[in-house]
Amino acid sequence: MNRRTFAGLVTAGAASAVVASTSAASATPGGNNRGRRPGTPIVVGHRGASGYRPEHTLASYTLAAHMGADFIEPDLVTTKDGVLVCRHEPEIGGTTDVSKRPEFASRRTTKNLDGVATTGWFAEDFTLAELRTLRAVERLPELRQHNTVYDGLWQVPTFEEVLKLREQLTKELGRTIGVYPETKHPTYFRDQGKPLEEKLVPLLRKYHLDAPKAPVFVQSFELQNLIDLRTKFKVKAPLVFLATATGKPYGDTRSYDELLSRTGMKAWAKYIDGVGPDTKRVIPVKADGTLGSPTSLVADAHANGLQVCPWTVRAENSFLPVDYRTGANPADFGRVLDFFAQLWKTGLDGIFSDMPDLAVLSRKLTLDV
After folding, report:
1. What residues contact 232, with CB distance under 8 A and at least 6 apart?
2. What is the pLDDT of residues 34-63, one digit of tens each?
């Protein structure tokens, strides 16, 4: 199949909003629109604009688009009655107020999540109607205290609501907003009799997104899940294989190191369109915590016809290499624009960020696009 560039899936004449202020703390959407040239690397709003709003809420996705993100990213899990909803993990205790709801106290349980005993409340144990009674909360309150002022305001959205929002934002902003869904723990859900794919594929087709050049990427950490989407479910939309800095895909005997070597990619590149690695696979962090030198991953992927869009750049010191931190407070913003610059210079095709305004600004400063 023909490889498609990430940037090529966004209308060539689309305008990207560049936030005028470099102060991410203000988080004010706006700025001047300018033409976005074909081939420009994309910015993906990671779980929306999750640096400024509780993640995976319609408010977070909307803010990301207004800040200039080209794509918004919903993680997909399922409810008891088979509706795809947007949460980072099946366990929802850290991202909703369910722990404060006495009526659901008995739902707290321990499950084997991809080989890891995990205790909490799980989306698949709630009907959509029950889940709608909950409200989203900030996942990282110790680092993002300012986000906690929004706790309790917004519901957990369905994937279909996000697809409708994407269409609405595209019309409102006059530029194509793409969607970048991830199938979360697909083997786990299939083993429970609640497979994600049978719900995902019809929605992609209903909203005219199952096409090679549609503004969508379907991503997964499980390579076999993506191959099945391409072969069994006949999905034509672009697919992206995600990879952590270490380890291997669940249920696979091969490590990410093996699968992401130049020769390893040849075995599966015919099915997949891109790679979504941890940023440490693009530029590792040395033993002392400082930023190292770029690897050959970008060149190796490009040699196999694959695009590269790593995750996730966050502005707080806690998430930055030690030589890009400012001060000792882990919640303070560090030299994130400089860190972005080092990543862009490796030839990336896109990047995920919790702070899409800063990603857009850094793209302009580094690449003049």
Report:
1. none
2. 344 557 999 999 999 999 999 999 999 999
